[in-house]
Design brief:
This protein is of the alpha+beta class. The protein has 20 helices and 19 strands. Helix 20 links the parallel strand 15 and strand 16. Helix 1 packs antiparallel against helix 2, helix 13 crosses helix 17 and helix 13 crosses helix 18.
Amino acid sequence: MLPAQPSPYPGVPRHTRQAGSVGRSVVHARHGMVATSEPLAAQAGLAVLQRGGNAIDAALAMNAMLGVVEPMSCGIGGDLFAMIWDARTGTLHGLNASGAAPARATLEAMASRGLAAMPEYGPLTWTVPGCVDGWQALQARFGSWPLSRVLEPAIATAEEGFPVAEVIAGMWEGAAPRLLATPEATRTFLPDGRAPRAGEIFRNPALAQTYRALARDGRDAFYRGPVASALAAFSHEQGGLLDEGDLAANAPRWVAPLSTTYRGVEIWELPPPGQGLAVLQMLGILEGSDLARLGPLSPDYWHLFVEAKKLAFADRARFYADPDFADVPTAALLSRAYAQEQRGRIHPGRAAALVPPGGASFARLSGDTIYLAAVDEQRNAVSLIQSNFRHFGSALVPTGLGFALQNRGSSFSLDPRHANRLEPRKRPFHTIIPALATRGGKPWLVFGVMGADMQPQGQVQVLVNLLDFGMNVQAAGEAPRIEHVGSASPSGAPEAPDGGTVIAEEGIPEAVVAELARRGHQVSRTQRNGGGYQGILIDRSSGALLGGSESRSDGCAAGY
């Protein structure tokens, strides 16, 4: 018999990690730290911190770099959400930098085109890209460097080229058939008529030129200047509804984050139209169970998790929408009394097959997103997420600009009774959600999980791994996950409230899968679910920074 091997996570029980998997070590640093989904972007952010920039400057540098090196997942053709901890005032701020539907985007306009549901790709899925306005808002309120300096590393990389990372190369290749459908997308992103392979050098001089316009003229270059004119002309050419008036009217919004307390920790999310509320609802349901006693290899835990997700997502499907256009009962959905009521709807031995909202519907959503975290020496902290939605968004690239336009409008419903129905100048339901946790009124964990519907599910699993199962910040993200997906809904809006399918990663024991099936869950296996995770934890005793970034993405945590 082989001798027992020491745990790679000292002080953490063996059941908190996948059997036979050592995984990465936690990254430790004292002064500042960044974490994101691509190493070149992480290095750009770390360099900013080392040269005296703050966490906001580092976050913007990383986001701009990710638009170069991971262009299918993010870029200035998409939207942005962020939470910022301001160390000087000891306050938390939320930013919704998502764009609205064009003024001409109406139910009647879609009906006249013979559409019963929003298309998944193409010009009718365009909403105003909010990313650049988000950059400007963050820089103006919290940044210490001008945007021109923040953009320098990304401009240089776009011009000089970079070797494509492995996971990114796979996503790029998967999107190639859609990019091949239009000449500009092919010219920009498919040199030699194919996606660049891992290790090959890719350049994007058109994006470097666009970034230079932003460095010179700020957000006005995008929403009122030459970029706006080019976007409007491209929209007219492609049969889209976006025009210069929609771009000029865009503005980001500072919003108050929502919170709940789980195991004595305050968990913070942004309000709708995002789905962060689902994280808080799931945690409220799960807090009534002794998950630490059950452990991460217990079928009872996974059954509770999946059933809590069904309940929260049924509410998501019914209620989550732009609060300027819909009555979202946020306080009621967050209440302890409602969490207890929802908990009582879970049968301990049987999977629910039909789950109406408490007190319904979106097709299964999948998409590509980047997440980044940054903490500086003063302990300013940024949790930022940015996305095109699907691979390269709408798969349409405006002539000469070097980026793809998002397809976030595909999340709208064309059902006139639905809270998330398409309306002019309305923001669609959003999947991308940055997260942050505080302890004793100070930041403790800055983290996020990518992957559309997986985001709230992944965030909850990370938090349970940390707070119930005693994992460290690295193991909490690497541990095998389960994703529950519902059936598609013909309405085109959030996921249908039925029994759905449980997708279990390798590392979830066969005995767990078998017991879930016995309780009525439809279970399938996968090597890995989507949804890369990054997190930075601030140690309460030493003040040191602990970083994690797991293998579902190419990224890393880096500090100094």
